[in-house]
UniProtKB/TrEMBL annotation:
It comes from Mesorhizobium jarvisii. This is Iron ABC transporter permease. It is found in: Cell inner membrane; Cell membrane. GO terms for biological process: transmembrane transport. Belongs to the binding-protein-dependent transport system permease family. PROSITE patterns: ABC_TM1 (PS50928). It comes from the Bacteria. Pfam families: BPD_transp_1.
Amino acid sequence: MVPRLPAYRRNRGASELMQSAVDLGRAGLPSKMRRMSQRRAPPWLVTAAVLVALFALLPLAFIIWIAVQTGWETVSALVFRPRVGELLVNTTLLVLLTVPIAIILSVALAWLTERSDLPGARLWAWLCVAPLAIPAFVHSYAWITMVPGLHGLWAGVLVSVIAYFPFLYLPISAALRRLDPALEDAAAALGLGPWRIFWRVVMPQLRLAICGGSLLVGLHLLAEYGLYVFIRFDTFTTAIVDQFQSTFNGPAANMLAGVLVTCCFVLLGLEVLVRGEERYARVGSGAARSQQRTNLGRATIPSLALLVVTTLLALGVPFVTIGRWLIAGGAEVWRLDEIGLALGQTLFLALAGALLATVAAMPMAWISIRAPGPLQRLLEGCNYIVGSLPGVVIALALVTITVRIALPLYQTLFTILVAYALMFLPRALVSLRASIAQAPVELERAASSLGRRPLNALWSTTIRLSAPGAAAGMALVALGIMNELTATQMLAPNGTRTLAMAFWSYSGEIDYASAAPYAFIMVAMSLPLTWVLYVQSKRMAGR
């Protein structure tokens, strides 16, 4: 039995422990060592990175230019009106209600699957990630066909939490696996109970994961279109698309897009503010042993009930609904010629867009690892800004640019691929950065010293060694493109019919049976990738 310390000693020790859990100091190498570890980037790589960054800023710059051209009186009339206030209230309430509920649910599920003796924890962990394989508008389609009266704000909150909580579960569960158990042991030795240990030791170390996941969920809420159309809940994205499709009113749609972009930047600023500048690492590797799992005891059945209910809502409802409509439609809904065409076009756009996004991200990824500096941080920030913009904003900007300046490019393959590359550039960049960081720079230097040209040296060493990371990034981009709806509808060439577009067309006609095969194929194509994400998160924690 651990002897209890006096109260003042426990409080002092706990405060010191909190400082260890979230160290406010900043660590770094001496400036001379940092300069030695860096190298100058080739001019052609810098030029390529600058061009990509300029393209990434194009949608944002265009919205600002449209506002200037429109004039303040028109802008104020379009922005400061009751309809915009209604959309702002709807969107704000949606985010304020959905994100906290998703955080609570994700933390509870992550703790149960990673830190308790829950029966079948590995299976439940995979089932918590699996909802990522189901597009958000398919979730909404499943719920609205099962509960036809499901409409409004609370319907939006329910379906949004179910569709997007895995974006929080994944980073939180990964963070729980990496926590050093010595900190919690020290807190227990100081006399803190299990709940106080969790709130004062564990939760502060989960702040980064919670902030990052919450930002991702919030940006998805701002960008989502199909989910809220099904349940008849108006947001900025639904209003922009409706405005564009009904009247092609450029100024009105662009001003709504400007307000939506402002909301995105507010979310980014809040994430930075809440995240703070604390350091979440410690000197040394910590304990190598695994965290001892907590015995649930009587809480086992309620814990299993929570996981069962979550799984039924997030996976059971979509699969049951899709299966029911497939059975009701019979063999007639499997129009193989239409499905084959949609599948072929989807795969072509997904592969071409993923390849373009990966190639565009390569210069920036190389510079961020091999030659970091102020310019690199500025260019990289531009790439992440475009990733925070909703697809409807990027599509609207490209539509207006091509119509006004480059009409021959309107609704062409080039325009839709550029839109995909801009939308999913951060996915490719993150994967490439991680893989290039694992490629020894000495091999690249050795190839250059042997007389190879810079591009050949880069290709024969770093690019080849980073191929697995590039493939993972391409897979993530391809998944996003396969499930993308809004930008594809606005930019795709005439005659294009992807799986998402075909599903949306049939569901819009209330022909749910004909839409079911397309929903089934999208889910079947996405499930393997979610398994890869789950396995990769385990490997990152050394499991």
